[in-house]
């Protein structure tokens, strides 16, 4: 152990260390020059590939645009989800029945019109036409039923609307 310590204290060890350090420094300098040369040829290659423009900048611009479009798509999807949620409370089911309310009128000029949402809530309108007058009555509908007395035609219109199963509604399958 003492021989190693004595060798470390000699001038020979210092000279060897200095030579190794010089070789490492020269190697480092050579690698730095090569790295600079490779970097320069890489940039030249990208300019040639990009028809005189730096393709790296173009790629960065495209990536920025893609990220922006992805953010916009996420916002649009959130908006569509909100609309889809609100859609359940919009009129989606319609049923109409035309009928002859009085024997003295010629055609089926009276009507019952049911307009319901996804949960079969809404309104049923009954338009009664006679030669002397025309009246329209509205009755609320909850879960396919009304708390008011409804006619046979109104019930038929409600049933048609319920069986309609949202034919007026457009839904896209979710891809998430």
Would you write up a description of this structure?
A four-stranded antiparallel β-sheet has the order 1-2-3-4. The radius of gyration is 42 Å and the shape is rod-shaped. The protein is 52% helix and 17% strand. Strand 2 and strand 3 form a beta hairpin. With 176 residues, the chain is an alpha+beta fold. The longest helix is centred in the first third of the chain and has 39 residues. The C terminus is likely disordered. The chain is built from four helices and four strands; from the N terminus they run αααββββα.
C-alpha Rg (nearest Å): 42 Å
Output mean pLDDT: 85
Terminal CA distance: 70 Å
Structural class: alpha+beta
Major sheet: order of its strands?
Answer: 1-2-3-4
Q: How is the main sheet built?
A: 4 strands, antiparallel
Give a nutshell description of this structure.
The chain has 176 residues and is an alpha+beta fold.
Pick out its properties.
176 residues, alpha+beta, 4 strands, rod-shaped
Secondary-structure blueprint:
Blueprint: H1 2-8, H2 11-49, H3 55-87, E1 93-99, E2 110-116, E3 122-129, E4 134-141, H4 152-164
Antiparallel strand pairs: 1-2, 2-3, 3-4
């Amino acid at each position: 152990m003492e021989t190693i310590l004595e060798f470390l204290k000699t001038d020979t060890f210092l000279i060897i260390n200095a030579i190794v350090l010089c070789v490492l420094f020269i190697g480092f300098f050579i690698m730095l020059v090569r790295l600079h040369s490779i970097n320069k040829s890489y940039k030249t290659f990208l300019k040639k590939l990009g028809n005189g423009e730096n393709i790296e900048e173009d790629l960065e611009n495209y990536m920025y645009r893609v990220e922006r479009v992805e953010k916009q798509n996420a916002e649009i999807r959130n908006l569509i989800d909100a609309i889809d949620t609100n859609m359940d409370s919009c009129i989606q089911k319609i049923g109409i029945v035309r009928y002859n309310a009085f024997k003295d009128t010629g055609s089926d000029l009276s009507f019952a019109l049911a307009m319901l949402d996804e949960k079969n809530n809404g309104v049923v309108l009954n338009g009664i036409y006679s030669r002397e007058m025309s009246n329209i009555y509205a009755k609320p509908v909850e879960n396919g039923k009304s708390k008011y007395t409804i006619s046979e035609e109104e019930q038929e219109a409600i049933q048609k609307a319920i069986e309609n199963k949202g034919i007026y509604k457009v839904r896209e399958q979710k891809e998430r």
